[in-house]
Amino acid sequence: KTGYPWIDACMRQLITEGWMHHLARHAVACFLTRGDLYISWEQGQRVFEKYLIDADWSLNAANWMWLSCSAFFHQYFRVYSPIAFPKKYPNAAKFVRHYVHELKEMPDAYILEP
Fold it and tell me: Are residues 66 and 41 in contact, defined by beta-carbon separation less than 8 angstroms?
């Protein structure tokens, strides 16, 4: 429960289904490591290892290092915003309502805001 509806919906999808879209994985990784929380990528890697049905240790570790800008990619200014990024997709509000039941009645204009 981060307070960011898009991130919460992505994580609930991961926990309930064992899967999430690769762009949702990117958004969650950016949020955890360099967008908002500044937590080590290794903690995110462990959570994904636990819940992903398609988990592959080497790919998971490499992607977390890449998205946290710990290795391979050092453009810190390129971060997936947990608010602006989902607004690019017309079904983002429906996705949030599906996984974050507390926001079922929230109007579209506000559903992606923390």
Answer: no
Q: What is the pTM of this model?
A: 0.90
Tens-digit pLDDT profile for the chain (114 aa)? Answer: 899 999 999 999 999 999 999 999 999 999 999 878 889 999 999 999 999 999 899 999 988 988 888 877 666 667 788 899 999 998 999 999 999 999 999 999 999 999
Residue 15 in contact with residue 53, Cβ under 8 Å? no
Number of residues assigned to the chain:
114
Query: Are 65 and 112 within 8 A, CB to CB?
Result: no
Residue 73 backbone dihedrals phi, psi, to 5 degrees = -145, 120
- Burial grade of 22 (CB within 10 A; 0-12, 13-18, 19 or more): exposed
Q: Please say whether the beta carbons of 12 and 100 come within 8 A.
A: yes
Question: Which of 58, 47, 42, 62 shows the shortest CA–CA distance to 14?
Answer: 47
